[in-house]
Amino acid sequence: MDNPSTRPASQEQRIGIAADHGGFELKQYLAGMLRTPNHLLVDFGDDILSPDDDYPDFVVPLARSVALGEIDRGIAICGSGVGVCVAANKVKGVRACVLHDMFAARQGVEDDDVNVMCLGGRVIGQALAWELVQVFLAARFSAAERHCRRAAKVAALEGLPFNESR
To answer: Can you list the domains of the chain with their CATH numbers?
Structure first.
């Protein structure tokens, strides 16, 4: 699979999205916004609003797809963003972060190579969420020496090599 960090911004991005009941409404909105010629969207569910669903059932398949390079970036949503972040980060190769501000949405990718953004559907509104998604998807890992060094140390915690040619 090619690397989304080095792919030209004009090329189609493969985006995955997942949410439980706490993020269902925001997921539906963002999925509608992401259905464009510039994005190939994979919806990992939930497909219906079900107050009894569990975020790991949707977020873990999303995270695995990111880790395998099947999709470039992931968007995971629950009520606060915290639960989906915890679950996504259990998958080797995933660097997930709760993002609720523009600086973190950009910097998380540029400095820390974040590949899954986590949002709180009960924390932020649709307009801010859409702006954050756009910033997150447009950002690219800087590959600065200090960022590669730090990313390699984090990858080593999982027993993974870090590809510095990103």
So the answer is: 13-157 (3.40.1400.10)
